[in-house]
Amino acid sequence: MLYKAYIKNLKLIRDTYISIITLKLSLLLNSANYAFSDSLIAIKALDLLDTRFKAILSLKEIIINF
Fold first, then answer.
1. Which of 6, 14, 26, 34 is 20 to 30 A away from residue 42, measured at CA?
2. pTM of the full structure
3. What does each C-alpha distance from 40 to 5, 20, 23, 44, 45 come to in angstroms?
């Protein structure tokens, strides 16, 4: 699941940067390995992120570095 802090940060980005077009995220390798070691958890996490990103209406591009 997404940590509450991550959800709070995404809300903060949405509410603060109302004209943001590109969002670039960097995930630590250890965190990514843990999150994606279980495909069901990974699918749920990505679905939640997708929902949160779609709430940022100005966002056109998302770049995620692992």
1. 14
2. 0.64
3. 21, 30, 25, 6, 9
Compute the distance between CA of residue 65 and CA of residue 55 in angstroms, rounded to an integer.
21
Half-sphere exposure of 49 (CA within 13 A, CB side): 16
Q: Is 60 left (phi over 0), alpha (psi -120 to 50) or beta?
A: alpha
Residue 42 per-residue DSSP state: H
Rg of the chain in Å (alpha carbons): 12
Weakly modelled stretches of the chain, pLDDT under 50: none
Query: What confidence score (pLDDT) does residue 30 get?
Result: 65
Q: How remote is the C-alpha of 41 from its chain's centroid? A: 14
CA nearest neighbour of 6 among 63, 57, 45: 45
